[in-house]
């Protein structure tokens, strides 16, 4: 059903929750400025790459994405910035740098927080020093509604804020700032997906596509059922 998944996600503006405000906040906390070198790790179709380029008009930005069509979409989306923004298909785990800022929105869990931060340590500039901004699924604490448990059932490693902080500390990093991503940034992701699903439903639908559409519809419904409790935690960290 992988092919059908990417048919659904084709041409969506972003591949996860977020907003330019999140990017701007992280840049301010990280103190990134001027001709900085920035990596967007797991860039998807380039929504945050574009936001980074707009917020840092002198920076040199690399964007890497495992799914080739997303990398191509990022390159096309950011062509207006000229050679200072480059996008390519590749693994976000294998980047040399050095970078003043590594931005990773909702993708670090593919590597693991501790493992990913540890692996990127040598990719950061040392004099600046380099910083990492990443968002990670988080439980808000207290008794979670059934919809929240259903939504996150495929990510058993999800934890509360202190659990994420412990993984950061285990990698030898300190936290410079943090904020919850909840509500509208998720709508920025799911509203276009919902419109895309509705459009695809109007055409001829194979059994495989029907199954993929049902999965997307169930995910959207689960988010809507607990939109005020489903969150990412955005952190800016630096090596100790």
UniProtKB/TrEMBL annotation:
User: What GO annotations for molecular function exist for this entry?
Assistant: methyltransferase activity
Methyltransferase domain residues are: 38-112
Span-the-membrane segments of this chain are none
Going by the UniProt record, its keywords in alphabetical order are: Methyltransferase, Transferase
The keyword DNA-binding is annotated on this UniProt entry: no
**Record-linked SUPFAM superfamilies:** S-adenosyl-L-methionine-dependent methyltransferases
GO BP terms: methylation
Pfam families per record:
Methyltransf_25 (PF13649)
In its keyword annotation, does this UniProt entry include Transferase? yes
Look up the domain of life of the source. Bacteria
Would you tell me the protein name for this molecule? Methyltransferase family protein
